[in-house]
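Re: [ENG-882] Designed sequences occasionally contain unexpected residues at chain ends

Forwarding the minimal case from QA. Structure tokens:
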């Protein structure tokens, strides 16, 4: 069951049915959806995706998916999921353009990484990012992700695979004692 997470400024909570319009608006914004999955989709497809969060993802406890809120308003989407692309767990996050440039993306990505290391006991967390998405590449580099390899996509674009490994040094905030 997807838990509720808190950061200094954000609340990550499981979606509720009333979030559908905000979810669709986020995914219909091309400035956001151009970087998500296969890119922009129809409104109908985004509504179906929202429905599957309840009927499949939450119902079968497949992965952790959150609505991201600030001051009670939904401003984004986040998930951490198993993926064959990297043979591990991948973080996915998106914020409304109004929230860009305020450090919230960094705060959100750090929360997902910490959740992966602490709650899921992962030793590494991955991200796949379009090579042209400089904002996300810069953010992930700043919080310790390293470029591992590139994937050449069928449409001629390149996807960067990035990995953040659990720090094993004493004194690390995520060091495991054993």
């Amino acid at each position: 069951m997807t838990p509720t997470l808190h950061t200094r400024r954000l609340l990550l909570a499981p979606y509720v049915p009333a979030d559908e319009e905000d979810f669709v608006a986020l995914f219909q914004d091309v400035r956001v959806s151009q970087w998500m999955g296969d890119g922009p989709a129809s409104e109908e497809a985004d509504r179906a995706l929202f429905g599957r969060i309840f009927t499949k993802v939450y119902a079968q406890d497949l992965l952790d998916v959150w609505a991201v809120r600030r001051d009670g308003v939904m401003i984004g989407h986040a998930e951490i999921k198993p993926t064959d692309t990297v043979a591990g767990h991948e973080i996915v996050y998106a914020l409304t353009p109004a929230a860009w440039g305020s450090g919230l993306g960094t705060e959100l990505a750090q929360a997902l990484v910490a959740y992966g290391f602490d709650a899921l006991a992962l030793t590494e967390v991955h991200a796949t990012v379009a090579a042209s998405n400089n904002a996300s590449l810069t953010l992930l580099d700043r919080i310790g992700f390293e470029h591992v390899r590139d994937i050449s996509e069928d449409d001629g674009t390149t996807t960067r695979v990035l990995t953040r490994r659990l720090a094993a040094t004493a004194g690390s905030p995520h060091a495991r004692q054993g």
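QA comment: On inspection the terminal residues look reasonable. Confidence is low (pLDDT under 50) at residues 169-178. Proposing we downgrade this to a documentation issue.
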